[in-house]
Amino acid sequence: MSLIETALQDARLSLVRIPLDQYQSYLQPLLTLIFPINQQNEGSKGDGHLPDPSLPWVNRYPFLNVSITPTECSIVCPKTLAEVLFDPLRGTAASPAVSRHGATVSSEDFVVMSVEGEGLEAGKRVLELTSPLALAGISIFFFTTYFSDYILVPARSKAQVVRALEDRGFRFEERAEAYVNPTPHHSRNRSSTSSLGALSPSTPPPTTVGELQALTFALLKQREIVPRVDANLRLLQCAGRRDSPSGFPTDEMGLQVGLTRSLVYQPRFLSLTLTENDPASLLLEKGLVSNFDLENVLLGNREDFLVPIMLNLEPLPLEATGIVCGVADRLVGGSDSGVLTKAIEMSYLSTARTGTVIVEEKDLGHAMEALGIREHDNLEH
After folding, report:
1. Residue 290 gets which letter from DSSP?
2. Whether 270 contacts 283, CB under 8 Å
């Protein structure tokens, strides 16, 4: 039997966006965020806002994601640290260009929901968790990591998230301190709540996942958002180890050194996720793996390459809803599109203004067909 368990955290998070041409100006605060200095005020220990110095550096945050992609540098971190590390640089950096076009910190506060799924493939988990939230009109950011999935939602929508999950059959179990859905399904049940608000006001709100998929792709077409594939970019999903065979201090140092080497020279693609309970999770271009010298530093298959398919969502308002679910249903559900003969295994990475679908290299052709990508027109070299 499949089982999905979700848990909402209380820590307030901010979304930070750094333009790629300003990356080097923000490298030092970025490294400070990832490798926090141990000296903290006594009152900050374990307060959910600042890193807890009593924990290993990879587990000091409730949730931290740093993603550098071909379109942007995006950070999700505790609100307090976003203000301390990234707000002051606006207007005080040496270059006038930085002060005008530097980092932007969201005015919206976010909370994160962790997702544990047994018996479901990653793509099915994406669809199962995003569909009730999309049909309830809740905007989300989605992160697939090596160990778990995470959904970022506006803090003001927390009660609405709980209602949407309960309406979909999730129940709260005190023992797990989480919402559990023992019989996950992504049926196309009706919802009375509007979604995809960026469409014309005359467009009826979707009431089923199938309708939401159709409206999602109509919206992408309307705003001229075309999925992009870089023909030369191949990724690997890796992670730090829970139990090190060669000694934890050595592996911890190897992970720190490898990350620093990878970040200093502005990688084309690297996404790092740190949480309270799991080792570091990495999605990175294959050429960066050599920065992690020691054989045992990283878990992960180094033969199965992944390919990112990127959607630049800048033409849409930040609160636009249903994008993740609509794309996932096209690739995983596929029942309404008439395009796929079988589901495509996928994962998803949200950044500040980009949605990135991750597929296995062998499935790229099928995914491009399903998403309407013409190979000769859209493969970027």
Report:
1. G
2. yes
How far is residue 82 from each of residues 32, 39, 215, 259, measured CA to CA in Å?
Answer: 11, 18, 34, 20
Q: Is beta strand 270-275 parallel, antiparallel or unpaired with respect to 281-285?
A: antiparallel
**3-class state of residue 230 by DSSP:** strand
Determine phi and psi for 181, rounding to 5 degrees. -120, 100
> Residue 17 to residues 140, 332, 335, 339, 352: CA-CA distances in angstroms?
16, 30, 36, 35, 6
Q: Which residues contact 258 (CB under 8 A, 6 or more apart)?
A: 288, 291, 292, 293, 297, 298
What are the start-end ranges of the H helices in 233-350? 248-264, 323-328
For 164-220, the pLDDT digits (tens) are 888 877 765 544 556 566 655 544 443 334 445 454 444 567 788 888 899 999 999
Pairing mode of beta strands 228-230, 379-380: parallel
| CA atoms of 276 and 313, how far apart (whole Å) | 30
Please give the sequence-ordered ranges of beta strands (E in DSSP) within the chain, or none if there are none: 3-8, 13-18, 63-68, 73-78, 104-105, 110-118, 141-144, 149-154, 171-173, 178-181, 228-230, 235-239, 270-275, 281-285, 306-312, 346-350, 354-360, 379-380
| CA-to-CA separations, 249 to 243, 272, 349, in angstroms, rounded | 11, 20, 30
- Asked if 277 and 59 touch (Cβ cutoff 8 Å), the reply is yes
Give the residue ranges of the chain where pLDDT is below 70: 1-4, 38-50, 88-101, 117-120, 171-204, 243-250, 294-295, 334-341, 375-381
**How confident is the model over 122-153, as pLDDT tens digits?**
777 788 888 889 999 999 999 999 988 999 99
